[in-house]
Amino acid sequence: MEGSAGRLAAGAVLPRYEEGDPAVSKQVQQLDRVIIRFAGDSGDGMQLTGDRFTQETASFGNDLSTLPNFPAEIRAPQGTLPGVSSFQLHFADHDILTPGDAPDVLVAMNPAALKANLGDLKKGATVIVDSHDFTGRNLAKAGYADNPLENDSLSEYDVHALELTDMTVGAVKEFGLSRKDAGRAKNMFALGLLSWMYGRPVESTISFLERRFAKAPDIRDANIEAFKAGWNFGETTEAFAVQYEVKPAPMATGVYRNITGNLALAYGLVAASTQSGLPLFLGSYPITPASDILHELSKHKRFGVTTFQAEDEIAGVGAALGASFGGALGVTTTSGPGIALKSETIGLGVMLELPLVVCDIQRGGPSTGLPTKTEQADLLQAMFGRNGEAPVPIVAPQSPADCFDAALEAARIAVTYRTPVLLLSDGYLANGSEPWQIPDVASLPTIEPGFATEPNHTSMKGEPEFWPYLRDEETLARPWALPGTKGLEHRIGGLEKGEGHGNISYDPANHDLMVRTRAAKVAGIARDIPPMEVDDPSGEATVLVLGWGSTYGPIGAACRLVRDAGHPVAQAHLRHLNPFPADLGDVLRRYDSVMVPEMNLGQLRMLLRAEYLVDVVGYNQVRGLPLRAADLAEAITKEITK
Amino acid sequence: MSVSLPMPGVREVPGLAEGDAPQNRKDFTSDQEVRWCPGCGDYAVLAAVQGFLPQLGLRRENIVFVSGIGCSSRFPYYLDTYGMHSIHGRAPAIATGLATARKDLSVWVVTGDGDALSIGGNHLIHALRRNVNLKILLFNNRIYGLTKGQYSPTSEPGKVTKSTPMGSLDNPFNPVSLALGAEGTFVARTVDSDRKHLTSVLSAAAAHRGTALVEIYQNCPIFNDGAFDSLKDRDSAAESIIPLEHGQPIRFGAEGRRGVVRDPGTGGVRIAEDPADGDVLVHDAHAADPTTAFALSRLTDAGVLAHAPIGIFRQVEAATYDDQARDQVTTASSGTPDRTEALAGLLAGGDTWTVN
User: Fold this and answer.
1) CA–CA gap between residue A403 and residue A423 (Å, rounded)
2) Do A267 and B97 touch (CB under 8 A)?
3) Residue B26, number of CB atoms within 10 A of its CB
4) β-strands A617-620, A593-598: how paired?
5) Could you give the CA distance from residue A203 to residue A219 in angstroms, rounded to a whole number?
6) Which pLDDT does position B18 carry in this prediction?
């Protein structure tokens, strides 16, 4: 009983099993990494359970990556396959990049959760099942003709069928809850059991439960008791002979927290506001999976943040653009369907040349598609989804924590170049989480708004005047003159502007010039984005795997598998999708073959082929889930060895 | 030093300093050539606005006009203030963001019957219900002008246009009824050709804190000429215009022989011939309940216009969205003197751990 058990005793919060002889002496086995999936009905609290296990794991010091997966319905019919909600967590003693392909452990709270997830498991995986609902009607709802716990259909797995519900009800009976309420604490029993099994520190979960249910003492106490009972059950039962230990992963020194993409994105926007001195104005309409950013920012009014829940998507972006005209950092957050509605206003922003940050938390499409699932199929919409020649810079984060830096970068480009910028996150980044080394605020970049304060031109009469479209020679950005600035009164609008003076112009040559100038301004951003970083440890790779956005993790994990198998392969990832880094063409041409894995049907591939005439190979899946590293590794290996 | 003005609608907008040269119409006239059709009612409204804005005594640079799309929406280009000619129907949304972000601006929206009531109907009603500090000038010519003559959401039923050769099938919106239905806190109607009335209504709108909607009957000489003739013709105007003045009995017609009285049958109001003084409704624009104002708005003909109340239907004080939104931010940020320090605290919040 060394290692994790000893460490937990130091926590001194759990009642120890004191009766009788500790006959159940447990063996501790070292593992380098584990993938656990908690699955249950959408009302079973699986997201909370997963989140708590994640926090315990984060504070223990493992590297980790998570994948929540839940239905769009708030409470899909109970006990059915569509109602299953799950949370997958991959943690390790080394740095990892993905939530993992196939779970080592499945915790299934009902027959539907077992049936929906079994196919993803590794052979021999541990399956912990609450046997309570494995009865006629519930089995039928999940589509089981026979009880799988009673036949040999699960013989490939290490199955532990336990009466989690009954044990929970028994453990909390002193609190006088109804049987239904008592049974609801079963997720905490399961969490306690898993926490024991993997030697997780538990203090944060107990204090979390104390805070969460502070206003309902009996529920609070029941949940804490269930959690402890789960732990004690693990320690005393003979059903589990082995406790596992996954040592902390070596990480750079610093202070860490676990963070989801949406939270990191919201923090990045707050940071962009403080680093630019511009008050943040968010105009938004609730939409999955972006709403959490609106919720989060609405909590931070003390940073001068205004959040406006608009009547629709169009009003959300319109209000943000209006606020930008007034000198705020205008931001709108949405998902793909919202971008479709905002397109005309984004085009207006291109014409007005005002800063605007448009965050698209992509989800499965087209139309309503798969609201709670992930996809990367809005790239071409972001690139081209407006009337006319309306170029917009595009930035994409590569991991949940990276959403912080991507938001800052989007704001920097928007303010510096006076342009709408599209930030393409996705459902996986939004809800997935990973450890984040908290940055030193002093190290964050500053953003200089550089408002116009004086006339910039002399009229034919020799008087000073203000020309709203007289550009900065280097960046081609126009001056940003705020209402309230004396002497700089001017009118802007969606009609074509005359070069320099900005008055309406229908002149053919002027239009041609302005279209080219707006394009040149966006293309010129390539001058201040860093060159490509290519990871090719052996320096012998002939195949480059290039990605963008949330595929960073799976691509990185796949490349490791390929290299471990003895094949050299190069990996690079794009933060900027428009414009591309200046050296991207050279990088692509350096390899015999370039493979682009995407969660779409080849949108970046299309752009690369069009721009560079390089015969890029695609690897494309639109399953609403992150790419699986093992499958991708196989495809990369095929490409290398063909 | 700027002087703050007594009008609630612009109480936080800097006024001219003592000793500043008084502003005149010319100061508000941009160098752009006005490009409306000869005889367009928009010229009269522009002249009235250019004449009236200097009287507000505000700094020109603190006034912003935001418009949508349509003939009237070219308006901002002709005023030497800050301005934005935006996209179809969205001006109230854009102006909402601007007005919320900047308390020191007087924000005006210029829109038309198609822009405000068709493509932008949603934004209009939501601006009204939120009571954002905006002044909305809705130019109603009951036709689509810029797209060359299709019927609009205020055209009379049966109207024959290019897109309705057998007559329009749509029931029209009554913009005043719609605004009152959204519980607009300032709702008025005026006519392009009556400079004096137009100016008085615009002044009252400017003074109002909250959303002010002013419907301006505006003649389109090309596609809907004479739509408001009954209200403009010297012979018929007295019988057609139902004047609304706060605190005054609502009488009109030759020698005030006609009056507006309560109609117990419908719960609304009706026009009566020679009503007794005691029966004539005394207009109360300040009534908290919009029901009577709505009833008055129903005296407007839906078809060809023979009668229409003109004046301020409703003018009540209510909390505004933008004031309250700013108050929340001010309250929340009062304890955050150093945002950089607060940011460091925010980022390091939640469960953290240290790797040494």
Assistant:
1) 9
2) no
3) 9
4) parallel
5) 18
6) 84
Cα separation of B145 and B143, whole Å? 6
pLDDT mean over A251-280: 97
Q: State whether residue B257 is helix, strand or coil.
A: coil
> What gap in Å lies between CA A73 and CA A84, rounded to an integer?
10
Q: Which amino acid, residue A242? A: V
Of B64, B97, B355, which has the smallest distance from its Cβ to A321's Cβ?
B97
Contact call for residues A424 and A396 (beta carbons, < 8 A): yes
Rounded to whole angstroms, what are the CA distances from A441 to A74, A397, A444? Answer: 38, 20, 5
What's the one-letter identity of residue B97? G
Examine the pLDDT at A7 and tell me if it is beyond 60.
no
Q: What is the pLDDT of residues A366-403, one digit of tens each?
A: 999 999 999 999 999 999 999 999 999 999 999 999 99
Distance separating alpha carbons of residues A381 and A578, to the nearest angstrom: 12
CB B244 within 8 Å of CB B285: yes
- Cβ pair A282, A320 in contact under 8 A: yes
Q: Where do the DSSP E strands lie in A389-466? A: 394-395, 420-426, 433-437, 457-458, 464-465
- Suggest the residue from A203, A270, A491, A505 to mutate for an interface test with chain B (most B CBs closer than 10 A): A491
Q: What number is the ipTM of this complex?
A: 0.97
Q: How many alpha carbons lie under 13 Å from residue A59 in its C-beta half-sphere?
A: 17
Short-list A292, A287, A395, CA closest to A342: A287
Whole-prediction pTM: 0.94
- Beta-strand ranges (E) seen in A191-294 are 242-245, 254-260, 280-284
**Strand ranges in A285-345 using DSSP code E only, listed in sequence order:** 306-309, 329-334
Contact B83 A490 (CB under 8 A): yes
Rounded-to-10 torsion of CA A381, A385, A390, A395: -20
Residue-wise pLDDT tens digits, B177-231: 999 999 999 999 999 999 999 999 999 999 999 999 999 999 999 999 999 999 9
What span, in angstroms and rounded, lies between the C-alpha atoms of A26 and A406? 46
- Report the candidate in A321, A495, A354, A359 with the shortest Cα–Cα distance to residue B96: A321
Dihedrals φ, ψ of B353, to 5°?
Answer: -145, 155
Predicted confidence (pLDDT) per residue in A429-448, tens digit: 999 999 999 999 999 999 99
In this complex, do B325 and A308 lie within 8 Å of one another by their Cβ atoms? yes
Looking at the partner chain, which of B59, B64, B87 has a beta carbon nearest the beta carbon of A348?
B87
> What's the CA angle centered on A528, arms A525 and A529, to 5 degrees?
90
Our CA-based measurement puts residue A447 at a distance from the nearest CA of chain B, in whole angstroms, of 14
pLDDT at B5 over 80: no
Phi, psi dihedrals of residue A230, rounded to the nearest 5°: -60, -45
Angle at Cα A60 formed by Cα A59 and Cα A65, nearest 5°? 75
Q: Is A403 on the interface with B (CB under 8 A)?
A: no
Question: Are residues A494 and B86, on separate chains, in Cβ contact within 8 Å?
Answer: yes
Query: CB-CB: which of B14, B61, B343 is closest to A274?
Result: B343
Across residues A573-595, what is the average pLDDT?
Answer: 98
Cα Rg for chain B, rounded, in angstroms? 23
∠ CA(A87), CA(A90), CA(A96), 5° rounding?
140
Closest CA to A70 of A373, A343, A368: A373
For position A1, what pLDDT does the model report?
31
Reported as half-sphere exposure (CB side, CA atoms, 13 A), residue B7 has a value of: 20
Is the Cβ–Cβ distance between B231 and B198 less than 8 Å? no
Burial class for A615, CB neighbours closer than 10 Å (0-12, 13-18, 19+): exposed
Query: Does B29 contact chain A (CB < 8 Å)?
Result: no
B153: which residues sit within 8 A by CB, 6+ positions away?
B113, B114, B117, B118, B121, B170, B172, B173
| Helix A186-197 and helix A217-236, axial crossing angle in degrees, nearest 10 | 40
